[in-house]
Amino acid sequence: MADTATTADGAPPGDTPTEDPRRDFLLISTVAVGAVGTALAAWPFIDNMNPSKDVLALASTEVDLSPIEEGQAITVVWRGKPIFIRKRTKKEIKAAKAVKLEQMKDPETDDKRVQKVEWLVMIGVCTHLGCIPTGQKTGDPKGEFDGWFCPCHGSHYDTSGRIRKGPAPKNLAVPPYKFLDDSNIRIG
Question: Which one of 10, 12, 20, 115 is least enclosed by Cβ atoms within 10 Å?
Fold first, then answer.
């Protein structure tokens, strides 16, 4: 007959029901305090990775369009990039709408590029190698399609900023923007 020792309640020694819950509580408490302590210690490092206030301020830009007359163009800076804004003439709008999509490298209708037909807003960076096309100032070469011309490699853009000739593979990009009222827009 094997000799087994038991406690008063019949359980083997060292296996009392009161030891396990206490041990579990201590383990869970230690892990929870350790996790909270680690999170509190790491928070300054994580918070430091957020963008600074000056970067957040550049996230959007508001532009007053009221001083711009028909046929004029301005350049504003948004996120370090030039934004071309042009109040197009009826002739420029008509030329942009008359283009057949089959003639384009990157087919896109004029209606998809503008929110109001007279206002063209786009990022003024050539899609070939990141140059800044000419055509914003009076007297600048505007290329064969009377829009913008990148003299570095010869890309020609039309009056809707679409690539028509040259090595650039894509149209000039349109940034996210919205009209706040008839004469103000927010870019970004």
Answer: 10
